[in-house]
């Protein structure tokens, strides 16, 4: 009996030695366990055999549950995608032999109401469009009517006649925060229903694709590529905060470099309000021809502040002239550019510092024609506050 016990102990010791020193390090035991013992994470081994050999695939038994962030991503996509459309604009170009050649451009847009109004960028439909077609998320196509455009803000309003449309929900684009999560849905490179995600990288004023000023543009690192133009930029609730408009790219590469820009939705809402009331956009204006002033020029001219906007000319009958503001009287030249000096020097509007023309444009975008603003300006060395009732802009060279 004692001998049997001794032999059993020796056998156990030898087995343990072989297991730990020879079999376990080579993975033999682990492989056996994986093959015959169910995994703790619910996976299983599937054996495949065929002419080229055998495979043992470790396959999950069930799809893991989505985490809260994934669930939100999925919810936003399902909610908004039916409201995003693909827009194709056909224009006629003249080839080398003076023949008419149709050319197509693509972009995105989103449904505003059940009456079929769609908002997009003006540059998506182009200048000389012959036909504009809208494709919905369900792949149905409709001919679109161009209701009106606003080139200054790079916006276009289209309309289609289609049933069961699902409009987007518009948010307030004021008080957006850098770091806030955003989503973009559109048709990059014609790939419809594409969603990308990122954050708000900055809020800054930039020049749009047609040279137009975009005040308080939403900069984002969400991937935006050709075809995304006109599509919605949304907050984490799927509410539209902007219209994707352009990208900044390196070396002219026509693809995302992580810097995209969107027109704030509040700008679009103001444009739509003018569309509905007047049939066109009534951009507010001081009706002046401006000259930006920096420290060097201010010192050279002898102005009382380092930064501001000098009034070269007040347009006859315009808001500035009616309020008593004065334009320049002295002809001069900056390099090869003729200018008029001696006019009033604007340094603030409604208490907000004015350092350049873009600052005035930003103030104008937060007001409407007929609003009264307080313009702080120097006439010579005398500082004054002047009440100005904003007029309607007549051309793109005045502010």
From TrEMBL:
> What is an example of a Pfam family matching this protein?
Trypsin_2
Specify the domain of life of the species encoding this protein: Bacteria
PDZ domain residues: 290-381
Please provide the record's keywords in A-Z order: Hydrolase, Protease, Serine protease
InterPro entries for this protein: Chloro_Bact_Ser_Proteases, PDZ, PDZ_sf, Peptidase_S1_PA, Peptidase_S1C
Q: Which molecular-function annotations from GO does this UniProt entry contain? A: serine-type endopeptidase activity
Task: Name the Gene Ontology biological process terms.
Answer: proteolysis
Q: What SUPFAM superfamilies is this protein classified in? A: PDZ domain-like, Trypsin-like serine proteases
Q: Which PANTHER family match?
A: PEPTIDASE S12, PROTEASE DO-LIKE 8, CHLOROPLASTIC
**UniProt record similarity statement:** Belongs to the peptidase S1C family.
**Entry protein name:** DegP2 peptidase. Serine peptidase. MEROPS family S01B
Organism per entry: Terriglobus roseus
At the highest ranks, the source species' classification is:
Bacteria, Pseudomonadati, Acidobacteriota, Terriglobia, Terriglobales
């Amino acid at each position: 009996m004692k001998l049997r016990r001794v032999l059993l102990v020796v056998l156990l010791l030898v087995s343990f030695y072989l297991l730990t020193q020879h079999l376990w390090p080579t993975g033999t035991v682990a492989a056996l366990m994986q093959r015959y013992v169910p995994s703790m994470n619910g996976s299983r081994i599937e054996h495949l055999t065929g002419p080229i050999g055998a495979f043992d695939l470790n396959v999950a038994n069930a799809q893991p549950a989505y985490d809260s962030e994934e669930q939100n991503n999925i919810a936003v996509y399902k909610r908004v995608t039916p409201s995003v459309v693909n827009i194709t604009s056909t224009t006629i170009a003249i080839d080398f032999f003076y023949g008419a050649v149709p050319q197509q451009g693509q972009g995105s847009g989103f449904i505003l109401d059940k009456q079929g109004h769609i908002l997009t960028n003006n540059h998506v439909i182009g200048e000389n469009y012959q036909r504009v077609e809208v494709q919905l998320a369900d792949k149905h196509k409709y001919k679109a009517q161009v209701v009106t455009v606003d080139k200054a803000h790079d916006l276009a309003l289209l309309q289609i006649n289609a049933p069961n449309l699902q409009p987007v929900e518009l948010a307030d684009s004021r008080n957006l925060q850098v770091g806030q999560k955003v989503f973009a849905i559109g048709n990059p490179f014609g790939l419809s229903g594409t969603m990308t995600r990122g954050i708000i990288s900055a809020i800054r004023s930039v020049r749009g694709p047609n040279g137009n000023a975009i005040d308080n543009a939403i900069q984002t690192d969400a991937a935006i590529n050709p075809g995304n133009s006109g599509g919605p930029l949304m907050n984490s609730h799927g509410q539209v905060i902007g219209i994707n408009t352009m990208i900044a790219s390196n070396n002219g590469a026509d693809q995302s470099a992580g810097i995209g820009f969107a027109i704030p939705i509040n700008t679009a809402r103001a444009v739509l309000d003018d569309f509905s009331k007047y049939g066109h956009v009534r951009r507010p204006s001081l009706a002046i021809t401006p000259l930006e002033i920096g420290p060097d020029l201010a010192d050279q001219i002898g102005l009382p502040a380092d930064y501001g906007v000098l009034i070269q000319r007040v347009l006859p009958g315009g808001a500035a002239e009616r309020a008593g503001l004065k334009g320049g009287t002295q002809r001069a030249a900056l390099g090869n550019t003729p200018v008029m000096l001696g006019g009033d020097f604007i340094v603030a509007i409604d208490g907000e510092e004015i350092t350049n023309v873009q600052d005035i444009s930003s103030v104008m975008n937060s007001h409407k024609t007929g609003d009264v603003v307080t313009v702080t300006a120097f006439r010579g060395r005398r500082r004054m506050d002047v009440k100005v009732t904003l007029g309607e802009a007549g051309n793109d060279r005045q502010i």
